[in-house]
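Subgroup meeting minutes
Present: P.N., E.W., G.H.
Scribe: E.W.

1. P.N. recapped why we're keeping a running log of single-chain structure predictions: easier to compare across weeks, and new members can see raw inputs and outputs side by side.
2. G.H. added today's entry (290 aa).
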Amino acid sequence: MNPMMTSFAVGLLLTTLTVGRGTNNAILMGAAPHEDPTFTTIDFPGAASTQAFGINPRGDIVGQYVTAGLTHGFLLSDGQFTTIDFPGAASTQAVAINARGDILGVYVSTGLAHGFLLSGDDFTTIDFPGATSTSPNDINSEGDIVGFYVSSGVNHGFLLSGGSFTTIDFPGATVTRPRAINPRGDIVGFYVNPGVNHAFLLSDGTFTSFEFPGATFTRPRGINPEGDIVGFYGSAGLTHGFLLSGDNSITIDFPGATLTDAEKINPRGDIVGFYVSAGLTHGFLLSGEK
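Output recorded in log:
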């Protein structure tokens, strides 16, 4: 095993809550509807905070945790946590994992953000040419990667496919940040114009703007092969997770939380993210029996 990766065997089901069906409760509407969806809290042992950012088809989960003021990435697979630290980095986040088990992330070194791909035990740095910082956000089963980079103080999106970078800019926007890509190449993210956050879907070369109904802002975070989209939105000063599936707009709130953020959704409709309760940040898995 890579010397920068350490493992801890733990029980996954730390907190499980059954979610009812109704206003501000989650209904999973993926490839096949789930029955009796449940929340499961994910806390890295001894960490001050834990955030889950990615999940693949087999249920492997990646994210970050903070302990002693330092940020580390993690992989949670078959009930076992593995720490992921890019060699020599000041901080590491694991943000996505695909069906092959390739892990995408971001590390900070000398104050600058760089992307990385961890395949097996091998780390590869991802930097957009000439950029001051590069932050990848998602990787699909084909190995295509989306994210954003900063150049001359401006945020641009990118697609990295077949070893080649392509810039993604929403027309007229001052900021473009792609957040997720599915196997067929559909990309979701957000853009700023003018001074307001808007969500977008980029499919077959065409941008489409969308918003969660009644939201003051909408930020997509994940899209699965069926086209189901998850993320978070703002309303009345509060932040809620969401699922958009077909014509259904569904709010996702962890019970009792002051903030809920849905980050990724896999083909089964399992959703990961994080929530804040009593000032503490915890990861979650939202799943159910088909």
